[in-house]
Amino acid sequence: MSATKTLILNKEQIHQKSKRIAYQIIEDNFDETDIVLVGIADRGYVFAQRLQKLLQEIAPQINIELMRVTIDKLKRQLDASADQDLTIAQDKVIVLVDDVLNSGRTLAYGLGLFLNIPLKKMRTAVLIDRSHHSFPIFSDYYGLKLSTILKEHVEVEFEEHDGVDSDAAYLA
């Protein structure tokens, strides 16, 4: 990994892209009464919390539920848990949320949790889509599609999770 970091999104840009994603979620689900945001721990959950606040401001008539999913990303098989009973998503729209989509493995594992739950539909939302998919997982809602080389790394920093002064996304 390179020692230099290149800023790709600052705090204002992250907020703008988050707001645009929230509007896209509403447009795609305008006739729904419930949406479940499933944030992948840790930064995906922080991003999902932010989307929940934006969605509640934009469409207060829609009940926006939040669920945290923890996935062991280093294992080659599904090893995941949720902070709530998965049946709260039954017959509802769920949006699986993460900060960066790289290979698609993390989102595929997140999807795996819900295979036995009947859903209305499942969508994915990411702040940055790197387009290096190894799995047939794609972002339905994204803030930025970024073409990178495999050696490069995208790092998202959120104030409330990383203890930094401001949100930012870097290419390293």
TrEMBL record:
<dbReference type="InterPro" id="IPR050137">
    <property type="entry name" value="PyrR_bifunctional"/>
</dbReference>
<dbReference type="Pfam" id="PF00156">
    <property type="entry name" value="Pribosyltran"/>
</dbReference>
<dbReference type="InterPro" id="IPR029057">
    <property type="entry name" value="PRTase-like"/>
</dbReference>
<dbReference type="GO" id="GO:0016757">
    <property type="term" value="F:glycosyltransferase activity"/>
</dbReference>
<dbReference type="InterPro" id="IPR000836">
    <property type="entry name" value="PRTase_dom"/>
</dbReference>
<keyword id="KW-0808">Transferase</keyword>
<protein>
    <submittedName>
        <fullName>Phosphoribosyltransferase</fullName>
    </submittedName>
</protein>
<keyword id="KW-0328">Glycosyltransferase</keyword>
<feature type="domain" description="Phosphoribosyltransferase">
    <location>
        <begin position="9"/>
        <end position="153"/>
    </location>
</feature>
